[in-house]
Design goal:
Length: about 400
């Protein structure tokens, strides 16, 4: 099945090329340098009159500033062959895990925001323009680190129940924290609504939702580009990719990058996607059921807020999957389906990761594995098929 690319599919810039042995900085550990010719930020920099070396210098300057704030800059994160974990769940086809817990601010989220701040720099957006995000977890922490490093003001919209430790860290990083209570008759996340109101007043959307700022996909794609290169080097082919989904930008960024890698011949084929949600918040699975067989699988009517989201995996409790259309389109093309994990699956996945790997992932960060457990139980994947999961958030 071939579907038209829906809204939220960023695509690759003109002249996109995979780094090779003759590419300057082609083996650089910083993905924003290594894969720069695949990034719209690099294309925008050249269009603005900056040359390639000037772009590299800009990335290094910003990355050094991030390291001063957070203790680490951006670097390639490992793809682990987790044989002990595979044995523990009886998965003989091989299991690989991309470990993001050692990334800037402890998750993949800062990749999105670093890509955005590069765009702001090359496009000359004033440093007085406020940045706006709705989050009380890893996205907010990543945004605060990157904004502080870039010297830009950040407004973070958080719910009343936000973790005090996260709020304290945001305050330490100089963020303007605004607590958002739900208003009578209001539908949807009040933090997202208040953030969008601020953007309407002139702020820049600085979150991980492609529907609010499509360029957030650009930096997020670096994870998928790394993964493609690592899978190719490991000789992993015909795999299934299980990605936990809240707002959807992580999975959307990954599949777009993996699609690019396959088109450029780095992979024989893109790994087949299974988007993973919890039984306490599964609007994507609901939308997929409505989209399957429909004349228009991307009808906006298929996605509406989930009532009373709840899960141990608190980081994927977005009541709406903002970047849902690329995910539905990808799974329809792949002949796959979303996976809804039970709370028992999520708790067991977290226990298994901590018991059988050295990765300090939290329940949200290990929820992709919960999807694999559910898929195994439902016979969605055979035990002899290679599987890939993303371990994306450090336990704090």
């Amino acid at each position: 099945m071939t579907l038209p690319r829906p809204a939220g599919w960023l695509g690759t810039p003109p002249g996109a090329a995979w780094p090779g042995p003759d590419t300057p900085h082609g083996d650089d550990p910083n993905p924003f340098v290594r894969f720069r010719r695949l990034l719209w930020a690099h294309h925008a920099a050249l269009a603005a009159g900056l040359d390639d070396s000037g772009f590299v210098d800009l990335v290094r300057r910003l990355d050094d500033a991030v390291a001063e704030v957070d203790g680490t800059g951006f670097h390639t994160t490992p793809l682990l062959h987790v044989a002990g974990l595979a044995e523990a769940i009886g998965h003989g086809g091989g299991l690989w895990a991309k470990d993001e817990t050692g990334n800037v601010s402890g998750s993949h989220k800062a990749r999105h925001l670093f890509g955005l701040v590069i765009h702001l720099e090359v496009s000359g957006v004033s440093h007085d323009t406020p940045l706006a995000i709705a989050s009380c977890g890893n996205a907010a922490l990543g945004a605060a680190v990157v904004a502080r490093a870039a010297g830009r003001p950040l407004v973070v919209h958080v719910p009343a129940w936000a973790d005090p430790a996260v709020v304290d860290r945001l305050a330490d990083l100089g963020a303007d924290i605004r607590v958002c209570e739900r208003r009578d008759g209001e539908v949807g996340d009040p933090c997202v609504l208040r953030s969008r109101e601020l953007v309407a007043e002139g702020a820049v959307a600085f979150g991980c939702q492609g529907t609010d700022n499509l360029l957030t996909i650009d930096g997020g794609r670096t994870l998928g580009l790394e993964l493609a290169e690592q899978l190719a080097a490991a000789g992993v082919d015909g795999s299934r990719l299980f990605v936990q989904v809240g707002g959807g930008a992580l999975a959307s960024s990954c599949v777009q990058a993996l699609t690019d890698a396959a088109a450029l011949g780095v992979l024989q084929a893109r790994p087949r996607l299974h988007a993973v949600q919890s039984e306490g918040c599964a609007p994507l699975a609901r939308a997929f059921g409505l989209a399957t067989g429909a004349d228009d699988p991307f009808d906006d009517a298929y996605m509406w807020p989930w009532d009373d989201p709840s899960s141990l995996a608190t980081g994927i409790l977005d009541d709406v999957v903002y970047d849902w259309q690329p995910l539905v389109g990808t799974m329809l093309e792949d002949g796959t389906t979303p996976v809804v994990a039970t709370e028992a699956d999520i708790a067991e996945a977290h226990r298994l990761v901590r018991a059988h790997t050295d990765v300090p992932a939290d329940p949200t960060g290990s929820a992709g594995l919960a999807g694999l457990l559910a898929a195994r139980r439902n016979d969605t994947i055979g035990s002899d098929e290679p599987a890939v999961v993303l371990l994306t958030g450090v336990e704090r």
